[in-house]
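Structure ticket #2291
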Amino acid sequence: MKLKAAWLVTWEVIGRPHKPVDNEIAAILPARFSERTIKFVLKLLYSQYLASPTNLFDLASFAKRVPYSNQPGIWCCGNSVFLRARRVANLELQNDDFNTGDYLCWDEADFQGNIWRKSYVGKTRQSRRRKKRRP
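Resolution: structure written out below.
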């Protein structure tokens, strides 16, 4: 199966998390969703991860600053364990011939305009440079 464009939401970890993340892929959402909808979904997913009254209160009290955007079209929510939502192209669900299960592949542009082909298999992520965007 293949989607031409979609929002991909993944868990990103910096350092050692206090609570482990079971699945790196948090959500795959339609590309037609607005950034406002994506921000709302990020807050919901992150509040499910926090799941303590103190942390939920903190998230609600900083409603204006959460989620934040550090690059155009990329939204983040969280600190050392955070959600990252971005638009990707050519998202494919493929089946491995060696019975290791299904895996995802997608094209993602970096901040310099290079497009990378990335894949997710189980708990490992791989990437390789695919092509450069034309100016």
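Closing remark: DSSP finds two helices and eight strands in the chain.
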